[in-house]
Amino acid sequence: PPAAMERAVVRCVPSEPKLSLRFVLPDGSARHMQRDQAEPLGRALARIATNAAKGHAKAGKKSKKARAEGGAEGEAAVPAVRLFSRDGAAVAEEVPNAAAWQDGAVLHIGDARYRVERNPPALTELRLPRSLLAGFPVCPKVSAEFAAPQHCLFRWFREQRPAGGGDAAGEAWVETAEAERVFTPSNALVGLRLKLRCTPGDGEQRYGPAREVESSGPVEAGPGACTFDARHLYTKKVCGHGSVRAVSYNILADTYAQTEFSRTVLYPYCAPYALEIDYRQNLLKKELAGYSADLICLQEVDKSVFVDSLAPALDAFGLEGLFRIKEKQHEGLATFYRRDKFSLLSQHDIAFSEALLSEPLHKELCEQLAKYPLVQEKVLQRSSVLQVLVLQSTTDPHRKLCVANTHLYWHPKGGNIRLIQIAVAMSHIKHVACDLYPNIPVIFCGDFNSTPSSGTYSFISSGSIAEDHEDWVSNGEEERCSMSLSHPFKLLSACGEPAYTNYVGGFHGCLDYIFIDKNALEVEQVIPLPSHEEVTTHQALPSVSHPSDHIALICDLKWK
Predict the structure, then answer these.
(1) Structural domains of the chain sorted by starting position, each given as residue range(s) with its CATH number in brackets
(2) Where does the sequence pass through the membrane (predicted)?
(3) Mind telling me the catalytic residues?
């Protein structure tokens, strides 16, 4: 068949009752038809024929001359429409549409010939981030059907600089040498916009129509040195298969960073532009990508940040992400794992308040809590959640891992509330790592909003807490609730007890931890935290060179 054959694009997926058919008639008019998948081909062909004739008639009506000459243009003959399979045999009219329209078949409409493309790779979304900084990776959001981002082709262009400083006539684009999914603009591109051309592919040498997207603004100058640059020197490579690099990080939700209160009271020392989400996302994506981590547990993740920014960016760096929103809020938890090291066996997320009320597992705790209605009410009002994943090593299927991630209640006087939350968390993790998957090692990351001197920290590390611990009366006698709690794990804070993991104008302290199972895992190395000098260069956090008010914890662990 001639190479210049027109395309008839068919989209046919089992989950939808109809298939769609798109083609352009010889007169240039585009046709988009939806037909039942089970309908016999003959009826679809007849419909195409009348459709084509209508198109022809319309074209005829447009021509006054033709009408004046009394021609029969308006009553166009219905063209013969047939479908031939790849081997040249006519497809029988009783064959259902779903089976008839195969890739490579040829559709005849009168004298016109169309090659059928069934489910060709197609881009459904192609977006560039709003803010581009020199020296920071630009990660497009790519969504595709019958294709995968890792098999797509990428070509990056930059604006041509106007010659002689005047306005360039028309837009001229110059192709850059970059052909990867992630593009890091150099300082030479400051002031210029970028354009990406993406061709969707399915990894089987099939490619669909390319799409282009231009950046909304030009590349801007980056901040220079960031707090994480020195840390990246320790994490240039992904660690070996016997090791796991884990990161825990509260990334400061946009929901909280951009309030009037945040700007004027919490972070008055931070330049307003450095609190903006687009700016912080640039820093965050570079920071996280540079840790070459196998597990990343994040807290305070805005839903849109996960969907539009972090998931697409970290996907490009080999990480698969899962998100759990806090009910009633726009932020939640995200856990990412390296695809070529782990596969996901199961997920066991809970909201503490819900689990406490509905799961038999927590019946005893729930009954104890009922004796303290004031505290019970507070616990049940909280929307805090716990994310739990069971992962399996891709190289050694015997190696499984229970990864938990949480963000506990924040109030300084809420120690008793946090104790109840952590009791629920430990019971739930025990259910997963002892009952469902007997004896699998636990890694428990999060912002526990608890310093090393707290009841919560003591409970996690020692395995029990007495009913006379001072944290049971953290908010005064009327909210005392005393109970003794225990859990069976031997947990250790892998990064120890740093002076602080949260450093803001009015407070600094150690609130974040990566707890590991002492019996099964040991610490290979802890990536040093930024120096006090770096943290305080701009007074406190966040700053132009650090995207959050917390500091990421990073450690390399290995199986014992």
Answers:
(1) 6-55+80-118 (3.10.20), 122-214 (2.60.40.2700), 228-559 (3.60.10.10)
(2) none
(3) 447
